Amino acid sequence: MNAGNLFQFTQYQPRPLEIIDTTLREGSQSSLLHDHYKYFFSQEDKMEIARALIQYGVKFIELFAPIVSPQEKDDWAAIRSVRNGLVMQKGYTFLLAHVRCHPDDVESAIEAGADGLNFYIGLSDVSRNYNHGKDFDAIITRARNLLEDVGRNHPNLILRFSGEDAFRTPEANLFRVYDEIAPHVVRFGTPDTVGIATPAGVRRRIEVLRQRYPNVDLEGHFHHDRGFSLVNALEAVNAGMRYVQTTLLGVGERSGITSMTELLFNMHIDKMYDHLEGYNLRGSYPINVMFASKLRKLVPSREPVSLTNRTHTAGVHQKAVLNYANTYEPFPLDQFGVSESEMLLGPLSGWNMIYYFLKEIKYYNLGEGTARKIAKVFKERVYNLGPDDSPTQILTDIAENEFGLSRLSAPERVRGNIVQHMGPQTPRPAGQEPAADPAAERQNAVSIKREN
Ligand code: HCA
Ligand code: CU
After folding, report:
1. What percentage of residues in the chain have a pLDDT greater than 70?
2. How far apart are CA 91 and CA 77, in angstroms?
């Protein structure tokens, strides 16, 4: 049964912030998977995602209960072998099964070798009436008996209980159930299932729960329906919540939940460095790119740890960034693996950018006056782009054919010092999927490698 697990939770010293990743459970419920006719993550996807999360420093990974499907059961074994293979290198990672308060779910998870069980059942009026139809007495009896039983027979399992839709559940109702469950669990979830919570409400909930259940840790799970998934998670951490559920890129049911990298990025900006213990922050952008490619998407523009946050289009911005990057790049994204900046050549580019591009990247021999003249012509011409034209092509055509510019031949070793590349640049190692990265798609991007 569970004897194969090598490590017990009681031996684990939790860090100030424990991410519970639920990309492979909540994230699998994302409608984005359907956009590209993908529908589910393949076993290879799941293994790669689990491996990347473990290497990043995540210690808790939530999966569906294996009872969901034979495939899910098989995936459990595969993910477990990934986890086992990384124990010597990265330490132990706990695999948690998301289970209904139902013995079949529990049995399937224990058989699959789960380290913990994340029980959930709806407690709000709507959940009780329209989801499972049970009243409080029935919920309490069922959950308590099951938890008592599991706790007795499998004392090493990490047991967590969540009242689904906790933020539409009046405090008195939550207490009524949690009071009965508290002796049997190490952690209570407080899921904001429909994304209705506000930061003030989150703080209040945490304060009352901490006071009432001093021996039970709290775990957050914040949906994004109002756009609050990040601020609610930040507020929760600031109010002393140690465990927060996140997914890669924040994907999940409807508009998803908190993104792992956006949360850690904000902890860093707010100088909460102890909360970053054990996370490989430089792997943030790479893990986002890897995961976006699984969704057949680019890293979304609203994800803070993205190249988009280092891409500049307006002439005023480009000029300032060329002078002093901090003007429009105030955050240490390079420490989160975004090591380049991009300037997009287009109708909004100023002469500075055009000068920089022609001189520093293309090695044309020109002065500022010529650059200004070329910029004028470019600005008229660039509005008539054909489907096969790119702004950089138009610009170099103007420079060579209309202004008769010629290129300096700079030695290779010097070129590397000036700027790395542009456009769809970095050659991809054979067999590797294309990076789901805006830079790889753009024909008109000037990438600037940061030295820091
Ligand atoms: C679900 C609901 C859930 C559960 C969260 C939890 C939610 O998709 O089953 O178990 O803590 O948002 O309430 O994701
Ligand atoms: Cu959820």
Report:
1. 90
2. 19
